[in-house]
TrEMBL record:
It comes from Massilia glaciei. This is DUF1365 domain-containing protein. It holds the Pfam family DUF1365.
């Protein structure tokens, strides 16, 4: 089968889709809301921008992507991720690196999770780095890899070591699945993506979450659609986190105090 990376043009994408979240116990709580995010082919882009009047790189605009929001905030993004992968023994992720994250909106951004999809030169997915952040300003990386190519939709696991929600203890494990599908629009190859993250504690499945979207070229029309259809989206992400926390507190879901963050910044 021809790898997706060999048929999807390595060009920046603005993706429109849905965020879904379901808590199974002790009080059931589910919500979903429309969202958008970017997928950026970092090697193909280099230091280039977006050729779009309303979307900028490393400067203020309606929507923007700032390199310092990702990686270590100092090194070029590809240099940083390549060094991290080498330090973890992944030496064959020499193909495209797709970064999936929310953009800045009027200068503000909060990414609960960003994904670095690291491919081999033949287009096969080799590893995924999940950059997880909480509202306390802390951050942790989960490196997902299995020693070779990762199949489309394959389940990957990681032990939970980082505090995200005060209504979940730092125990148990995550189950990840990432799916991509190609479609053609006006002769152009675009993609749809789905990222599923399910969390199991000691009693079994507790949370089911997903982020999905359909990609489109970054253009002034697409940016205007995103900005005016979903006003102040990144501010809304933080507001929704606190609103859902209030709902769980009202329902008397057990509360867990925040522990000290893990000393190791990358876990597998």
């Amino acid at each position: 089968m021809q790898p997706l990376d060999s048929v999807i043009e390595a060009a920046p994408q603005l993706c429109f889709g849905q965020v879904r979240h379901k808590r199974l116990r002790p009080a059931r709580n589910a919500f979903e809301y429309p969202a958008y995010y970017v997928r950026l082919p970092l090697r193909a882009m280099g230091r280039g921008g977006f050729d779009c009047a309303l979307f900028s790189r490393n400067r203020f605009n309606l929507l923007a992507f700032h390199d310092r929001d990702h990686g270590d905030g100092e090194r070029p993004l590809c240099d940083w991720i390549d060094a991290l992968l080498r330090a973890e023994g992944v030496t064959d992720a020499d193909g495209e690196i797709w970064l999936q994250a929310m953009p800045r909106v009027l200068g503000f951004v909060f990414n609960p999770v960003s994904f670095w999809f690291c491919h081999r030169r033949d287009g096969a997915l080799r590893a995924v780095l999940c950059d997880v952040r909480n509202t306390f300003g802390e951050r942790h990386f989960y490196l997902l890899e299995q020693g070779g190519a990762i199949g489309n939709g394959a389940e990957l696991g990681a032990r939970k070591v980082f505090h995200v929600s005060p209504f979940c203890d730092v125990t148990g494990s995550y189950r990840f699945r990432f799916m991509r599908a190609m479609r053609r629009v006006d002769g152009r190859a675009l993609e749809s993506t789905l990222a599923c993250i399910d969390y199991d504690d000691g009693a079994g499945p507790l949370l089911e979450t997903s982020v999905s979207g359909a990609g489109a070229p970054i253009s002034s029309g697409a940016v205007a659609r995103a900005f005016f259809s979903f006003p102040l989206m990144t501010f809304g992400v933080v507001a929704r986190i606190h609103l859902q926390a209030l709902r769980l507190w009202i329902r008397r879901v057990p509360f867990f105090s925040k522990p000290a963050p893990p000393q190791q910044k990358v876990t597998r």
